[in-house]
Task: structure prediction
Amino acid sequence: MHEHTPPAAKAGAGAGAPDAAEPSLPAEQPAPAGKPASAVEPAVAETGAGQGRKPSGRGSTRMPGGKGRAASVAGVAAGVLILAGGGAVVAAGSLMPEPASSRTVPAAEAAVPAGASLGVCPGPARLLEGTEAGTDAQFRPESATAATRVSAAVLSAGGVLPGSRLAHLDGTAAVDIAKDPGPAPTPGAPQELRAAVVADRTVDQVNVLSANAVANQNASAAGAMKYTATDGDLQGSAAATCVQPSNDQWLAGASTTVGRTSILALTNASSTPATVSLELFGSGGQIQAPGSRGLLVAPGTTRSVVLAGLAPNESQLSVHVRSAGGPVAASIQQSFLRGLTPGGVDYISPGTAPAVRQVMTGVDIQDPAGLAALTAQPGYRDAGPALELTVPGASDAVVEIKLYGRDGQHALPSGGVITAKAGSTTEVSLAGVPAGQYTVAASSDVSFLAAARMSRGLQAGQASDVAWAASAVRLGSQHVVPVPKGGQRQLVFGVLDTRATITYAPITADGKVRAAASADIAGGTTASISIPAQAEGADVVGYVVSASGDAAYGAVLVGQDGRNDVSSLAFLAAAAGQETVPVTLGY
Result:
């Protein structure tokens, strides 16, 4: 690997009023409690007491000069003539040229005010309720060493730190990161890039990182949580970025076979109720599961869904999460038990949406001979590295897979061209690839979803760990990259075609952004950079990363000294500037 040394609407009512001779219909009544709306009987319109009686002559109008029935016939005939004439006018009007005022004008771009940046950090990993304790003296289900911590950083804009905080879902503040900004610096004065940070704060529930907009620009902020345990069924380490809530997101890599537990957490950090629907894709195709639609998530709450209840015995499962109303943050807590031996814990975070190209970086592969011996053992087939492909559309995808390592491209033993069936998931083994860190690039002419699995530990019967690398965004300018404290930490970068230059500046716990270093990375390679514990005497809690040149991708790879722990954190997208939307005028 390349080693670089870092520096220390609702429609309106129709026109006109109802005829006075016709009774108005009662308004539609809501459904009684416990009775569906479709079962409510429609209201029956009732007329007055005079219904069915012969109308009297009072109030009737006679045609002038008319006599009896002949006058009535004449009146009807006149009405017919008037209506016919009106129809002619309408018909003639439809042939007239369209007035200039009704023509569509070109779309204009309208600025959208920037809002607060939000990131939802998953809560601590927990066992399912009802798990029995004391089944094994060495590997107890409950953990006495489990700890969950959050680190976050918020960058200044125009010399001003945005108001930001880390809060619980109920809105109570866990910690104020930076107070609301004061007056802006004097124009022309040097504006040094600064940061406000949360360094390794212990948490016991879901938390929300928020940062206000500054000068109508979205704040640059990001956070990450890290869970660790050295005992219990959930021993290992798991890390996840604090993801932005969305109404549409994809997660790949879940498993519901025996010994595998996948729990989908849906968090609504908004003030609007969210109604969530799930689309599930397994190896046999899309799964129609009762109970996967219309899941209500109240504001300020998290709803947990055990995926085995919707799609049991699925070795490879992808989930499409869509919400109406409030946006939600989705993540999957996944854990493995191989008999009584803990096989790892991880958080599956949303990746990029289905596209014709997917890239995962920071994929760590162990010794291929050791992996072959391990995966041959009963219950260890899914302990090896693999790529999971999901094709949500109706056409099969012919996917070309390329692996880029420290010294260039490596071929897959399978040849690297795979046909992934439409509407289902396909697993591609990465067995036989030499040990090292890789960037995996997959491309097709059909949109698909992808994620890569990695593991640590080569001895059957000993605790191991597993992690998933979600598909990542292309690097741009000024990504905030939080780094969990402790253990082995690396920045991993992959460049696909030609050269790219990566600059990375450490953020320290005292709120300073230190001097940046740069790495020139050749195309078709993957480079890793060891993260030091400190820079200039202060703890490193994150980085500011920018890229130029060819398409580059990045991830943070996290491990523990002396243990088989592994976690991967994909970089979040950089904060966007002032957003605009096209507005079409016309009627």
The radius of gyration is 32 Å. The longest helix spans residues 68-94. The longest strand covers residues 436-456.
